[in-house]
Amino acid sequence: MKRFFPQKTENRKQKTQAVCLILVLMAWLLACACGRAPLGPPQKARVTQVVDGDTLILAGGVRVRLLGIDAPEMERDGRAAEFLAHKAKAYLAQLTEGKEVRLEYGPLRYDHYGRLLAHIFLADNTLVEAALLRQGLARVYFHPPNLSYREVLLAAQTEAMDAGRGVWQKALNQNETFYLANRNTLRFHRPNCPLAEKIAPANRGKFTSLKEAYLEGFSPCRSCKP
Can you tell me whether residue 110 is helix, strand or coil? Predict the structure, then answer.
């Protein structure tokens, strides 16, 4: 004998399933709103320590490398500190230490040392890297694909270069007749640098002066140190 169930029973079952689904969705949204499982690196954080002119540490121990710049190196492994290294560190500390900052990221978020790569903004929206460049306490150091604020940073560097501030008191002393450039990496090299020999013809360029290279946003090779 066939059994016939009332239509109301089926409707009640569907309504119950719908209510359960809504409750599950609401619970998930509430968990997200409460921040139980934050995703990705921080958007805002307090700076607890400055390591050097382009590296700082956030609350919780996260080490951050500032994007788009390279400050003079501190003393390490028996090597003396580079020109104005301590001044660059002190200025970065003056700007950021103990303060809450905002962080912005590019496509590449970590370097090969495991440091977080970020642009740092103060409460008044000052771009910290540009402030360092404007004082001549760093040089641009672009690393594709992280090229946000490229024009802003390059303009800040050019201002310091034209005024002869900071590192630009010495950085334009030239001892080569020309320099070879890699358009892919945005680095320039001495003519006899082994890395220059490996530049693909399509990426190879040439600068007749250091100033020309810096004005185009290129940075010196870390190996041959032009």
Answer: strand
Q: In the numeric block, which tokens belong to residue 14?
A: 């569907």
Q: Is the pLDDT of residue 168 over 60?
A: yes
* Residue 110 · residue 143 · CB < 8 Å: no
Q: For residue 209, what are its two tokens? A: 């002066």
Strand order of the β-sheet with 204-207 is 204-207, 179-182, 187-189, 219-220
In single-letter form, the type of residue at position 111 comes to D
- For residue 212, the one-letter residue type is E
Report the Cα 156 to chain-centroid distance in Å. 16
CB 30, CB 88: distance < 8 Å: no
Which CATH architecture does the domain made up of 44-168 adopt?
A: Beta Barrel (2.40)
**Position 67, amino acid:** L
Which position has the token pair 């409707």?
11
- How sure is the predictor about 40, in pLDDT bands with cuts at 50, 70 and 90? confident
Residue type, position 11, single letter: N
Please answer whether residues 103 and 118 qualify as being in contact, where contact means their C-beta atoms are separated by less than 8 angstroms: yes
Q: What is the Cα–Cα distance from 24 to 114, expressed in whole angstroms? A: 37
CB crowding 170-183: b at 16 or more within 10 Å, else e: ebeeeebeebbbbe
Phi, psi of 214 (to 5 degrees): -65, -40
Q: Is pTM beyond 0.85 here?
A: no
Domain boundaries, the chain: 44-168, 172-220
